[in-house]
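queue> pop job 88
queue> type: inverse folding (structure -> sequence)
queue> payload:
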């Protein structure tokens, strides 16, 4: 047979050169191991492909936990194809033996020829794809044995396709349900959601120790718990590394796990490790939302605004229900000076989750001198940093000095040891350069002490791009500050 270019089955097309699986109106880039498994099954449709054959194909040099790695690859394929282990349309499990592809396969070759792959004749039990048919068949066997006067049916009397399958599929379904709920909490990020996400990912991994994505979810959760100051770094960051490395041992192409380790390497100044993990993430999953979001931040920090906005849009397209990526898009638009669109995207985020931030919309209204609208928006928020900053800016714009001073005092009391750059922005907007530069020094010290994110990178590019500190950047005192802080 000429070299295979594509496999087609039931409306799906596997493009072997790119690893794209196209069908049902979507395109999925398969991870390397999942593609290798699917190709092996499609090469021998209707025949049993032994687990040992698949393991030898995926890990020719041998690796630790290859059994769980194979289970994980099969699980990913089933989720992509919306296939049910208990009532399969495509991938049938033969317990303790291997797997069989039971769909109708067409092979397209590079020489232009197309062939219908042979399908082995299937027995009646193997054609029972729907769950109710399988249940009926099991009941029929039980009734027949009862009529014959036998005791309750031992497992050996059941068809091979039914043995162990219900328990395995229930286990997979339970792990998948915990994982999906963990993803929901991780995407929403309301108060307590990170803790809820961690519990769900832990449950998924406990049920299925080979569930690589569950470990990647744990790594993301632990990273965010540290970044947001919700748990001690020395407690959760070692857990994050363990979970991320476990995920990559099971699936070396998981971009999420690579990116968490990349960000951790950047935090401690290991740029070599950062580049290694970021490069592997991009090669494995170029459309991963976390990768795109981090690339957007890097582009913005270098002044490439159009690129930063485009990457932020792609991150939202990759994970449209993750609030953080939509907020990041609003931030990118704001820094790029696209104020009306930034405000609208931020308000869209607020509509999706009323508990999230709308500070970007408030800042846009202040910059547009729509102070009363900014105040009206801020009054709908609970007391906190976002509300106090917008009130301090808007009251200053309205020349209501007493209320502006009160709001600034509240901001200092709340943000002084948590987000001092907000105080810098207010003083700069008020034209008080002495106080602004004083708080810049405090901000620099705060960022240096907060080791979760590298101070020499986060603080400078934020300063460069914030429109509220433009007057400071034009001051002759700015070069002196830059020299003390480091490379900006």
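queue> result:
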């Amino acid at each position: 047979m000429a070299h295979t270019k594509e496999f087609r089955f039931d409306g799906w097309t596997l493009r072997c050169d790119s690893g794209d699986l196209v069908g049902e109106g979507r395109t999925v880039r398969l991870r390397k191991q999942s593609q290798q498994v699917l190709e092996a099954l499609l090469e021998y449709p209707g025949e049993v492909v032994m687990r040992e054959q698949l393991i030898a194909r995926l890990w020719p040099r041998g690796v630790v936990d290859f059994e769980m790695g194979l289970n994980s690859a099969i699980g990913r394929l089933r989720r992509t194809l919306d296939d049910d282990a208990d009532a399969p349309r495509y991938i049938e499990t033969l317990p303790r033996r291997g797997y069989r592809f039971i769909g109708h396969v067409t092979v397209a070759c590079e020489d232009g020829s197309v062939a219908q792959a042979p399908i082995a004749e299937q027995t009646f039990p193997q054609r029972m794809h729907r769950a109710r048919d399988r249940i009926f068949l099991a009941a029929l066997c039980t009734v027949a044995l009862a009529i014959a006067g036998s005791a309750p049916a031992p497992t050996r009397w059941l068809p091979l396709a039914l043995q162990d399958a219900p328990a395995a599929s229930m286990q997979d379904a339970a792990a998948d349900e915990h994982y999906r709920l963990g993803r929901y909490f991780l995407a929403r990020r309301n108060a307590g959601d990170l803790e809820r996400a961690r519990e769900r990912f832990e449950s998924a991994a406990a049920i299925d120790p080979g569930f690589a994505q569950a470990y990647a979810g744990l790594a993301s959760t632990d990273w965010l718990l540290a970044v947001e100051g919700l748990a001690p770094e020395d407690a959760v960051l070692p857990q994050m590394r363990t979970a991320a490395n476990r995920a990559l041992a099971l699936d070396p192409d998981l971009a999420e796990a690579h990116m968490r380790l990349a960000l951790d390497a950047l935090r401690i100044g290991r740029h070599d490790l950062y580049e290694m993990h970021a490069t592997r993430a991009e090669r494995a999953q170029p459309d991963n939302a976390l990768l795109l979001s981090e690339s957007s931040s890097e582009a913005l920090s270098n002044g490439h605004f159009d690129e930063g906005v485009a990457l932020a849009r792609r991150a939202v397209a990759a994970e449209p229900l993750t609030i953080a990526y939509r907020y990041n898009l609003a931030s990118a638009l704001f820094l790029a000076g696209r104020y009306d669109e930034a405000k609208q995207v931020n308000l869209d985020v607020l509509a999706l989750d009323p508990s999230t931030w709308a500070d970007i919309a408030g800042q846009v209204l202040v910059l547009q001198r729509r102070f009363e609208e900014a105040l009206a928006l801020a009054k709908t928020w609970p007391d906190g940093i976002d509300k106090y900053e917008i009130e301090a800016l808007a009251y200053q714009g309205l020349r209501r000095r007493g209320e502006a001073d009160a709001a600034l005092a509240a901001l200092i009391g709340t943000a002084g040891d948590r987000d001092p750059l907000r105080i810098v922005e207010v003083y700069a907007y008020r034209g008080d350069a002495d106080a602004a530069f004083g708080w810049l020094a405090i901000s620099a010290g705060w960022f240096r002490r907060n080791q979760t994110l590298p101070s020499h990178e986060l603080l400078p590019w934020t300063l460069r791009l914030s429109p509220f500190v433009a007057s400071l950047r034009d001051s002759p005192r700015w070069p002196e500050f830059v020299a003390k802080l480091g490379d900006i």
